[in-house]
Amino acid sequence: EQKEDNDSTECSQLGIMDLKFTSSRKYISISVPSKSQTMSPHIKSVDDIVVLGMNLSKFNKPTQFFICVSGVFMFYLIYGYLQELIFSVEGFKPFGWYLTLVQFGFYSIFGLIELQLIQDKRRRIPGKTYMIIAFLTVGTMGLSNTSLGYLNYPTQVIFKCCKLIPVMIGGVFIQGKRYNIADVSAALCMSLGLIWFTLADSTVAPNFNLTGVVLISLALCADAVIGNVQEKAMKLHNGSNSEMVLYSYSIGFVYILFGLTCTSGLSPAVTFCSKHPVQTYGYAFLFSLTGYFGISFVLALIKIFGALLAVTVTTGRKAMTIVLSFLFFAKPFTLQYVWSGLLVVLGIFLNVYSKNMDKIKLPSLHGLWKKTVEERKTRTLSQTV
């Protein structure tokens, strides 16, 4: 009995101590900023999608789709037209790197303006990562712009459609990845389409130069790498689109400026552009502005409808760009361009299908045969009755 009394006394003391501990416990509240404070103002949240100051969440789905597709086609078609128009200026073709310098300058200004609209202006991604991204961005856009001095614009667009090829090659040799039949078929279709398109270009183009193919191929490899680096950096450090644009393009601007200064390529370009300010700086401003706005609608399209539909729309836009290039700018044409372009489009479709097999279910030969047999049995039974 004495032991039980001692136990009950200890329990009551523990209860009193626990009560005192509970009453003296302090709670810490942690406030987490909303997504609208950390993301780009172009796309603020799932429920509130704002593009160029226009709130798309007020409209229904068909209207949102129409607005996004119209924005993608309008801005990117103007972008492609202005890019080819700049290089059609007589004497400008050697200054592709200077055009990239001007474009990087405009993009840096646009990114700085956009960053001022965001409440959280801190730089989240490390400077070393931005130096790598800037180098890859310079390679992608600089080599792509310079290749237009040697290639027809449709050939350049066809090459840019085939980013899957260097991605797959890098995945096999660097990461040891294995790909399914759809991916391999997509790469083969794209490769054959590229070879066929390039052969057609070399046959009908009077000033075809293999240097352009090498430049656009290197730009394609850099473009395949930069997407993975950007995605990893933004997910790891929660960086915004405007931060990525500002720092990657401003650092890239310094890279190109240093390179042009060392190679004595800056002075001739400045002299030429000063003689044609409207055809160079004026078009370059609109060229950069439309490219910056176009990506806003692409991001909105991905946010609302998913990557599958966005890829379909952008592929259609590239096809329309090639058609308009032949219509607005005089260049030789052959039907070989059509067949090789269709091969590339088939490769793009196979690539999209391989990534969305659960959403896209194509009918198999066995399924079609089984359905045909069942229809025949049903007809026979109905005739007998």
TrEMBL record:
Bilayer-crossing regions: 65-83, 95-118, 130-151, 157-174, 181-199, 205-226, 246-269, 281-301, 308-330, 336-353
Cellular localization per UniProt: Membrane
Keyword field: Membrane, Transmembrane, Transmembrane helix, Transport
Top-rank taxon, per record: Eukaryota
Primary localization class, coarse: membrane
InterPro entries (UniProt xref): SCL35B1-4/HUT1
Single annotated GO MF: 3'-phosphoadenosine 5'-phosphosulfate transmembrane transporter activity
A GO CC term attached to the entry: endoplasmic reticulum membrane
Membrane topology qualifier: Multi-pass membrane protein
Signal peptide, first to last residue: none
Record Pfam families: UAA
PANTHER family listed in its UniProt record: ADENOSINE 3'-PHOSPHO 5'-PHOSPHOSULFATE TRANSPORTER 2 (PTHR10778:SF8), SOLUTE CARRIER FAMILY 35 MEMBER B (PTHR10778)
Family membership noted in the UniProt record: Belongs to the nucleotide-sugar transporter family. SLC35B subfamily.
Protein name per the record: Adenosine 3'-phospho 5'-phosphosulfate transporter 2
Species annotation: Halcyon senegalensis
Lineage, highest ranks first: Eukaryota, Metazoa, Chordata, Craniata, Vertebrata
